[in-house]
Each structure stands twice: as structure tokens, then as C-alpha cells.
Amino acid sequence: MAGFIDSAVQDIDSRLKELKEEETRLRAARAALAGTPKRGPSRAPRSTSTARRGPGRPRGRRGGNTRSAQALELVRNKPGITIPELASTMKIEPNYLYRVMPKLTADGLVKRDGQGWHPVAKSA
User: Fold this and answer.
1) Deepest in the core among 27, 35, 45, 92, taking most CB within 10 A?
2) Are the C-beta atoms of residues 117 and 110 closer than 8 Å to each other?
3) Residue 79 in contact with residue 116, Cβ under 8 Å?
4) 116-119 and 81-82 beta bridge pairing
5) pLDDT tens-place string over residues 69-96
6) Are 25 and 50 in a shared domain?
7) Structural domain ending residue among the three candidates 61, 78, 100
């Protein structure tokens, strides 16, 4: 039980950190648009990815459910894997997987057992 609590606390702390970073970015964007002085934490660093992706190309979208496919493959290779383990292996934040995994469950590809995720056996 202590392991579950520690894991839950770590997940909450991680999410709080992400929310603070998001607040910083939103405040900076609002200040830029409204021309008002921003308040709160210091401005988030500017991304240099715009130059690489070019104008008009959507940011961060590859299409093809790449993360879902990657998560599904990891679950198939290591049944019982947890979201924090998946996130660490995929080098992404766990909060993203809390959106991806329920979709895989709804599609009948994985199932949750406790904290772990397992592939669903294909029916013939």
C-alpha cells in the first residue's frame, strides 16, 4: 500500500509541476496578446522548434497514433507495466498516458489490473 501512495504522490507532484509551467506559458501568451504586464512566475523559455517545423505545420502532431502504438507494443512486451514505467521508457510525461491508455482499453486492446496494464488476448 505504501508503494501505491508513494507512486500517487509522485504522479500528483509531477502534474503540479506541469501545471505551473503551463500557467507560466499561458500568462506570457496572454501578456503578449493583450499588451498587459504579466504577473506570476518568470516567463517560460521560447521554443526554437518553430524554425525547424516551418510555418503552417501543426506543432507536435505526427499522426497515426504513434504514442498509442508505442504504448501498446510496450504493454504486449511487458504485461503488468505501469503508467510511470511506460512514460519513463517512452521518455514522455505520464499525464499523456492517462489519456492514451483508456482509449486503448475502449478499443479492446489492453486491460487494467491494479496499477498494471495487460494486453487483451485476440479472439479468433
Assistant:
1) 27
2) yes
3) yes
4) antiparallel
5) 899 999 999 999 999 999 999 998 888 8
6) yes
7) 61
Spatial separation of the C-alpha atoms in residues 23 and 8, rounded to whole Å: 22
- Structural domain tally of the chain? 2
Q: What is the pLDDT of residue 29?
A: 87
pLDDT in tens, 10-52: 999 999 999 999 999 898 888 888 876 555 555 555 555 555 5
Residue 72 in grid coordinates: 501498446
3-state secondary structure the chain: CHHHHHHHHHHHHHHHHHHHHHHHHHHHHHHHHHCCCCCCCCCCCCCCHHHHHCCCCCCCCCCCCHHHHHHHHHHHHCCCEEHHHHHHHHCCCHHHHHHHHHHHHHCCCEEEECCEEEECCCCC
Neighbouring residues of 75: CB distance < 8 A, sequence distance ≥ 6? 81, 86, 104, 110, 117, 118, 119
Could you tell me if 57 and 12 lie in one domain? yes
The answer to whether residues 1 and 30 belong to one domain is: yes
